[in-house]
Specification:
Cofactor (chains A, B): pyridoxal 5'-phosphate
Oligomer: homodimer
Largest sheet of chain A: 6 strands, mixed
Radius of gyration of chain A: 18 Å
CATH topology of the largest domain in chain A: Rossmann fold
Strand content of chain A: 5-15%
Shape of chain A: globular
Keywords (chains A, B): Lyase, Pyridoxal phosphate
Number of helices of chain A: 15
CATH class of the largest domain in chain A: Alpha Beta
Protein name (chains A, B): L-threonine ammonia-lyase
Number of domains of chain A: 2
Pfam families (chains A, B): PALP (PF00291)
GO molecular function, one term (chains A, B): ATP binding
Distance between the termini of chain A: 42 Å
Strand order of the largest sheet of chain A: 1-2-10-7-8-9
Structural class of chain A: alpha/beta
């Protein structure tokens, strides 16, 4: 790849994943790995689902948030943590800060679903509303930090967050040997980056694939062109995958992952229904894209043993209606 | 209790549960036990959910079906198994017979949901349709048995089925010590009977409660009156709990369980939504009644450590709409 040098900041390494695993052990769940004969038959492959929808706060995001919050020195932690997220990272930060006993402030754009606000507020975090654009959001976060001295923990562009997310794949590989591939959804790229670091270290022969909605294919196109694309506004049911990579996650994924596979919106909804029906799990649309790319690429994965990271289960009623359509 | 002597046939004992656990070990899943801070707060108690919705074929029924199918002598098994069930037992028998490599015939009344028929047929069982009344059903089963020499495995009035169902509570008690109570839904009483036998043997200080829809309170009234009630046609969303006890399950439950608690239909739907939202699990309405009785009896269970058996996850679209209501 001929990308120009990027300013990535420090890239997390496998030892930082080991630190993360030790740091979150008392707080995060070792989530179960489930499977289904019917889904294996549908895929023509053996599928092992790492159920991060059963993680605390309903998504893998708690791993990274917990690691980053507990990695702070006491004096810095005491001033609190700030983040911007209308989604799972906000609730994860709120929970991690409650557990550590420090203040959390989450900047949330106007128009965010009430269910997400309730999840953040339910963990005791302060919510600051802002206009629904990036400039207003960044200004609000800067103001919180200026006023409180809080530390910013970004949803994915943060080495401790990436290291924490990688612990899901560490558990998957420890429990299931001989995986031919591991597949994780890609939005900002924190989960896929952490998954790649874990997999390259622990199971170097296992392929690593990102799964992305066709309607939000900025990571796919970034890898293909070698240039990080950040200027799109994707329209996909996968609300957790509308973000774009950062220079850091782009560099990690370009180095370690085998590539990105795409799935259209209809196949993502079908995959969500299949998980509901056969695994009896509530997952959010962003989680379903990984199964969708397996089912959409039968030749590539035929006969393989595949780990799939089900990233989260925080679905709102609108998405639920999709299941009934 | 002043009940007249009942013809119960042999009552399973704890050693038969140990046999069952050994017999099904290679086939059934040790299902995960999940919990949620939000549900603990809602209940004012510590709730440990034994997730039989994640069992093979989507319900605890596979434990009893598998035990009964594998308990058959080879020569008898070769002639196949017959049962009547439009629900989870039919699919469980079909799967168990497929695994053992013997024929299964399931008698299903006209009008049964297509999703259930598909589950049974998907495991390779023969389906025989009959008119939707008990006489036609019994006649159809008798004809299958006369023609094929198949062995009848009843959905709950069978010692090996009851013993198999008890293995869920065995796993729960082995994993979680110091339970104040275990709660299981009651329809025909197979699960509650097996649960009672396991609990009395392994954790004698733990209370055992059945959970029953108010709209199908035949077990509650049978225990209260001392007389087995079999002549009602209940109207409840809990399609798995519309049956009545048999003399055998009545005797076991009257002897070993602490009692039955009731929940109305609205509270059952609320409980199903709570499990969806906080445990991220798809459960069928019949499973939700156990949580509903905990939430409906806060004084009784306040501060306790409670095992709840989530019995199954085979929900149809009609029940799914309830979640959106």
């Amino acid at each position: 790849m001929d990308a120009q040098p990027l300013s990535t900041g420090p890239l997390p390494t496998f030892p930082s994943l080991l630190d993360a695993a030790a740091r979150i052990r008392l707080h995060a769940r070792v989530t179960p790995i489930l499977r289904s004969d019917a889904l294996d038959t549908a895929a023509g492959a053996q599928l092992l689902f790492k159920c991060e929808n059963l993680q605390r706060a309903g998504a893998f995001k708690f791993r990274g948030a917990c690691n980053a919050v507990y990695a702070l020195d006491d004096a810095i932690a005491a001033r609190g943590v700030a983040t911007q997220s209308s989604g799972n990272h906000g609730a994860a930060i709120a929970l991690a800060c409650r557990l550590r006993g420090i203040p959390a402030t989450v900047v949330v754009p106007e128009g965010a679903p009430k269910v997400k606000l309730d999840a953040i507020a339910g963990e005791g975090a302060r919510i600051v509303r802002c206009a629904p654009n990036m400039r207003a959001r960044d200004a609000a976060v800067a103001q919180v930090i200026a006023e409180t001295g809080a530390t910013l923990i970004h949803p994915f562009d943060h080495p401790d967050v990436i290291a924490g997310q990688g612990t899901a794949a560490m558990e998957l590989i420890a429990a299931e040997s001989g995986l031919d591939a591991i597949i994780a959804p890609v939005g900002g790229g924190g989960l896929l980056s952490g998954t790649s670091i874990a997999t390259r270290a622990l199971s170097p022969d296992t392929q690593i694939w990102g799964a992305e909605p066709e309607a939000a294919r900025d990571a796919f196109d970034s890898l293909a062109s070698g240039e990080l694309i950040i200027d799109r506004v994707p329209d996909t049911i996968c609300d957790g995958l509308r973000g774009h990579l950062s220079p850091r996650t782009f560099a990690l994924i370009a180095r370690d992952a085998n590539g990105i596979l795409l799935a259209d919106e209809a196949s993502i909804c079908d995959a969500m229904r299949l998980v509901w029906t056969h695994l009896k799990l509530v997952i959010e649309p962003s989680s379903a894209v990984a199964l969708a790319v397996v089912l959409g690429n039968p030749t590539r994965f035929s006969g393989q043993r595949i780990g799939i990271i089900l990233s989260g289960g925080n679905i709102d009623t609108a998405s639920l209606h999709v299941l009934l359509a």
